[in-house]
């Protein structure tokens, strides 16, 4: 898929991975709608991108992905502004085991609702579209320090795979894939390391593992994201990204995916 002239929407895009995904889309000629609950950071970032790419290439929409009204409104505003929607990345996520219900609402409900809204718009377009959901290696292997975060990321992978198969069967023209990075150097990672509520041997173990394998930087993950967006042969693919092993597609024991991308 050539990204020139394509329209994308990225949730949780004011910093970290979301910001890097926006930037790689812009560099490749797409127009991007930036959604984030952090309004000052989102506005500041839009101003930075305006300098490099021009004000017409992006729009910033304040949006909490846990709000059905705000998320719907943001999708519709994006379509109104740019005339179509080709690429959606449901990326917003938090790692808060104390407020575990909020973690489920942001990480899982936000991704599910974002996927449904994207499907609704894209399946009406002749060219279809692509949805990339940000999961984590914690969606493939348990992260003992963060059981609820682990559950949400397993949920994203199961949901994305099921929807991808359904999309092929229904010939909706929409591809759905998920991205599973290992530890990445962002504020989310720092917030877990600095969280005094998380203590003890499991935290020490996790930090040791993190130090041993080393954190990815956001641009390494953005390159893998670009591959998932542009490779039109992949639907239902789950991509794991590690510092040492790089980006690889996950092979599941019970593979229910239909082999072809939706037509
Ligand atoms: N950093 C890592 O180690 C790592 C590894 C694998 C996966 N991930 C996943 O990548 C995604 C991005 O994480 P990050 O590391 O860039 O974190 P980050 O904290 O740097 O950025 C997250 C962004 O999401 C926004 N956000 C949070 N709640 C929101 C809400 N309710 N509505 C809209 N926006 C919201 C924040 O304001 C922020 O801009 C998350 O889904 C995270 O689980 C992160
Ligand atoms: C703690 C930081 C929170 C950031 C969460 C990110 O999504 C990154 C998650 C990345 C990797 C997860 C790896 C899980 C690995 C386990 O299967 C195992 O190798 C680790 C064993 C230790 C344990 O039981 O937790």
Automatic annotation (TrEMBL):
Belongs to the short-chain dehydrogenases/reductases (SDR) family. PANTHER family: 15-HYDROXYPROSTAGLANDIN DEHYDROGENASE [NAD(+)]. GO terms for biological process: prostaglandin metabolic process. This is 15-hydroxyprostaglandin dehydrogenase [NAD(+)]. It holds the Pfam family adh_short. One of its GO terms (molecular function) is 15-hydroxyicosatetraenoate dehydrogenase activity. It catalyses: 15-oxo-(5S,6R)-dihydroxy-(7E,9E,11Z)-eicosatrienoate + NADH + H(+) = (5S,6R,15S)-trihydroxy-(7E,9E,11Z)-eicosatrienoate + NAD(+); resolvin D1 + NAD(+) = 17-oxoresolvin D1 + NADH + H(+); resolvin E1 + NAD(+) = 18-oxo-resolvin E1 + NADH + H(+); resolvin D1 + NAD(+) = 8-oxoresolvin D1 + NADH + H(+). Catalyzes the NAD-dependent dehydrogenation (oxidation) of a broad array of hydroxylated polyunsaturated fatty acids (mainly eicosanoids and docosanoids, including prostaglandins, lipoxins and resolvins), yielding their corresponding keto (oxo) metabolites. Decreases the levels of the pro-proliferative prostaglandins such as prostaglandin E2 (whose activity is increased in cancer because of an increase in the expression of cyclooxygenase 2) and generates oxo-fatty acid products that can profoundly influence cell function by abrogating pro-inflammatory cytokine expression. Keywords: Fatty acid metabolism, Lipid metabolism, Oxidoreductase, Prostaglandin metabolism. It comes from the Eukaryota. Its EC number is 1.1.1.141, 1.1.1.232. GO terms for cellular component: cytoplasm.
């Amino acid at each position: 898929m050539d990204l020139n002239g394509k329209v994308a929407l990225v949730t949780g895009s004011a910093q970290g991975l979301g910001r890097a995904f926006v930037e790689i889309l812009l560099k490749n000629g797409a127009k991007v709608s930036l959604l984030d609950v952090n309004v000052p950071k989102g506005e500041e970032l839009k101003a930075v991108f305006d300098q490099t790419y021009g004000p017409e290439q992006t729009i910033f929409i304040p949006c909490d992905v846990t709000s059905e009204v705000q998320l719907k409104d943001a999708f519709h505003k994006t379509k109104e502004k740019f005339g179509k929607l080709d690429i959606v990345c449901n990326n917003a996520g938090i790692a808060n085991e104390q407020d575990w219900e909020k973690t489920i609402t942001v990480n899982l409900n936000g991704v599910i609702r974002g996927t449904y809204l994207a499907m609704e718009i894209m399946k009406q377009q002749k060219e279809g579209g692509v949805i990339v959901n940000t999961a984590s290696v914690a969606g493939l292997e348990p992260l003992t320090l963060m059981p609820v975060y682990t559950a949400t990321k397993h949920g994203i992978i199961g949901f994305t795979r099921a929807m991808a198969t359904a999309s092929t069967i229904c010939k909706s023209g929409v591809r759905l894939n998920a991205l599973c990075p290992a530890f990445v150097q962002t504020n989310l990672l720092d917030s877990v390391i600095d969280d005094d509520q998380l203590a003890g041997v499991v935290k020490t173990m996790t930090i040791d593992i993190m130090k041993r394998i080393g954190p990815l930087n956001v641009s390494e993950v953005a390159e893998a994201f670009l591959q998932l967006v542009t490779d039109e042969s992949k639907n239902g693919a789950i991509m794991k990204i590690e510092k040492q092993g790089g980006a690889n597609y996950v092979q599941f024991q019970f593979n229910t995916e239909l082999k072809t991308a939706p037509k």
